[in-house]
Amino acid sequence: xxxxxIKGWEVIIGLEVHAQIATKSKLFSSSPTEFxxxxxxxxxxxxxxxxxxxxxxxxxxxxxxxxxxxxxxxKVNKISRFDRKNYFYPDLPSGYxxxxxxxxxxxxxxxxxxxxxxxxxxxxxxxxxxxxxxxxSVHDMSPSNSFIDLNRAGxxxxxxxxxxxxxxxxxxxxxxxxxxxxxxxxxxxxxxMEKGNLRVDANISIHKPNTPFGNRAxxxxxxxxxxxxxxxxxxxxxxxxxxxxxxxxxQETRLYDxxxxxxxxxxxxxxxxxxxxxxxxxxxxxxxEQSRIDKIKSELPELPDAKKKRFINxxxxxxxxxxxxxxxxxxxxxxxxxxxxxxxPNKSAKLIANWILGELxxxxxxxNKNINELLFPIEYIAYLVDLIQDKTISGKxxxxxxxxxxxxxxxxxxxxxxxxxxxxxxxNVIRQAIEEVLTNNPKQLEQYKAGKTALFxxxxxxTMKALQGKGNPEIINSILREELSK
Length: 486
Ligand code: ADP
Ligand code: MG
What we know:
This protein is α+β, with helices and mostly antiparallel strands. The chain folds into three domains: 10-295, no CATH class; 302-419, no CATH class; 427-484, Arc Repressor Mutant, subunit A (Orthogonal Bundle), CATH 1.10.10. Helix content is 40%, strand content 18%. The strands form four sheets. Strands 1, 2, 6, 7, 8, 11, 12, 13, 14 and 15 form a ten-stranded mixed β-sheet that branches. Strands 5-4-16 form a three-stranded antiparallel β-sheet, with no helix packed on it. Strands 3-17 form a two-stranded antiparallel ribbon. The radius of gyration is 30 Å and the shape is elongated. The model has no long low-confidence stretch (mean pLDDT 94). Residues 12-16, 161-164, 203-205, 213, 216 line the site of adenosine-5'-diphosphate (ADP).
């Protein structure tokens, strides 16, 4: 662990991830959660905190939190409770946020990440609780007025609070990426960071190993993994500089300025705010039946880590290739569909992965497209690989076929037929071509016979050229060897 020390300082990071639960309606009302509506169009009397309105708990949102807890190996608490966190803010009409301060729905759990040196590291989760999001204050529509948009007020969130187990910005970024993959796999959160579906508060402090933790700064509302990494890197340097200059790091909340790349003080947290938490009298404790938990557990899809291990085992992929393929469930599913479409799935699995991660990803990147926007079925990649495997075409010709395929969206089998790209296997044709090459290059032949065996490649190249790139390389090699030894 000490390899992470920077000038003798150890970095301590703990993350609070706010994930918007993927539901159609809000946590305690039936207003839609859909993004992008006109301001204040998704606001019920309850969301606007009209007197006498009562909360009704969204059971689907609860199921999503249970699912998340199981997916990160946490304990689902059969009894949890909602508390009021009281504070005034213009975008919080009720004057309190409903959250789970004392009895969260999930306790414990962990996420495994891979470190730069390839080792695994387990990062523990302290708990996951459910809470409501607040509305939004809009300050940039008028020079003299601020506006309130309550569409977001009451949207269900999960707050996933980690233990302070991370020791570098890299570990923090990997944790968020893994968590995001898991949430997407199980469909508990869309994790669209640009839409604010996933926001991270990063707590960070430095200390000398084997001494108590230092005071932490909490950097609020980081909405991309890049900003998270950059903000932490800046903050690590700042805290080291401050401490080494003899100044104390106060416990405070900081903001990350994406334009300057700096963090700055937002508010001091020396005297923790008194939110006067108390159990919400309008909500009963949340009691979960074991059967409900079991049912959700039985419906859980295969998770990214398990899928990765299976890909490595079954398809003989490298850890690296498998990691990239499982990162996006859609890509993983496409990959498996292609493998299953091959005539020889076991033999082709590795090659199919190479084509998807290499040529296909390069094409998608260039076109700025997702894999599910392809205009040809993914099975075509398997057909292409099959054509290589059964020696109908060479790996080199396959590139030509691929280029034609992404251009025309045609089946590679038809492309090969139409363009006459089948590999030449006929030994007589190949032998004839070789004989011509040898008669046309007497000087090289003489040199070869005199011991310059490196010229073998030259003859292969000339023969291939004579056969318009379509000769079977293995047959060329063996006949050539035979002819040259005469
Ligand atoms: P609070 O009750 O003030 O919110 P918590 O103990 O709940 O504080 O911790 C909030 C987050 O801060 C957690 O993710 C935790 O891992 C992290 N954290 C706690 N202490 C430190 C520290 N000294 N340095 C970095 N992160 C910390
Ligand atoms: Mg906290």
